[in-house]
Amino acid sequence: MTPALLVLAVALQGPDTNAAPRRCEVVLDRAGYWVRQPVTATLNNEYGGGGVVAHCRGTGSQLAADSVAWYPLARRFDMVGNVRIRDTAFALDSRTAAYFTGEERLEAYTSVVAVNRRSGSVLRGPNLTYLRAAGGIRDTTEMRATGRPTIEYRAESDTSAEPYLIVADRVRMHGNEQVWAGGTVTIDRSDFAARGDSFALDQGAGRGHLVGRRRPTVMGRGARPYTLEGTRIDLALEARDVRRVEANGAGNARGEDWDLTADTIHLAIAQQRLQQAFAWGDSTRPTAVSSQQTIVADSIALDVPNEVLTEVRAFGRAMSTTRRDTTAAADVDWIAGDTVTARFDAETDSAGRRRSEIRQILARGSARALTHHYDEQRRDDPPAINYSRGEGISIALRRRRVDRVVVSGQSDGVHLEPRPVAPAPADTVKPAEVRP
Is-contact 243 259, C-beta < 8 A? Predict the structure, then answer.
């Protein structure tokens, strides 16, 4: 016996929160066989096999499976073998699926592939629970998955954009905008990667965050990669793209030419590249380290347009130290003031890569500086030592050495020339040995 139709609430509208919830009149299009088993005077369990195809009357929803079963007392509709569900906004493939009509809940198992046809997001994993929006039950569609699913996540506004690849032990999605992931979370895209124990993203509000016992980490994957770590990492998004990354607590950011440590570190990103970095905090004074400089202050700002370091600005009890030789403990130049600014030029090294070389350091407000000056013609001789104080001090460098020091405002200081090398003693003639 083949029924003309079964009235079931199995309409899978997909995550369309604006559409009015509707029930689905499932119209059987094809079945190899159909069996009814009475359970009450008016209700029958129904079983179909041999390849079942159906659709929802008056909608674009289609259902297909090797076999199906309808249990009216439990209000459960089972699909077994090569399950395919298609709707205008949602597509699902799995080995088995069960729909609980009273709760508007779909559970799919084994080789699950679920596609949001509006955004292009794709979930793959061993299982999926789909909670349909329905009046009196829930106002927004949700999807939940465990067993370390993989999600190709896109925003609905730009279906052609490169997706973020999210992998986690468990995932929950609320509508089109919100995602939660827990348990060894990885997020990857060609320009961006993130790691953490827990991840939350609200595309509508333009924010997200990473937390966990293992240090959450964000990495830029441009031509000049960078890394940011912290106790918690917050993300800010504009136009569905990451524009700000902030580490809160034990922050550390690293690039090819610099290393930044502070309680809080804020990275500004544009055109999928790092452009600026800011650091501040109380428990740990911000410290910026480049290939030669170490700068410590109450707060620090780095300009890194297109990921190339051009300027470091330090505010509040700022001090910059420069070591000419990592093995010479005494050979250290330093400059300090209320503010310190270090400026860099981008140069191309022998391998063809752009490197940042320091060219000028400036201090303003109660400025002090200690510098070493070498004779270019006699590099092995000890240096002259200069100590200066003033309202402002500018140090120009050439080939990583101090070239000149300019002191402005009321100033004083001392300049010490190296002690001349003692002349070699004159040759003396020994008296002839007297023999007895």
Answer: no
Residue 411: phi and psi, rounded to 5, are -140, 160
Report which DSSP code applies to 212. -
The residue among 76, 74, 49 whose CA lies nearest residue 64 is: 49
Does 385 fall in a domain?
yes
- What's the domain count of the chain? 1
18-49 residue pLDDT tens: 444 455 667 889 999 999 999 999 999 999 99
Domain that holds residue 384: 291-421
- The values of phi and psi at residue 32, to 5°, are -65, -40
* pTM (predicted TM-score): 0.82
pLDDT tens digits for 116-126?
Answer: 888 888 999 99
Contact 240, 270 (CB under 8 A): no
CATH label of the domain that carries residue 400: 2.60.450
> Is 251 contained in some domain?
no
- Confirm whether 389 is domain-assigned: yes
State the Rg of the chain over Cα. 35
- 287's tokens: 């410290």
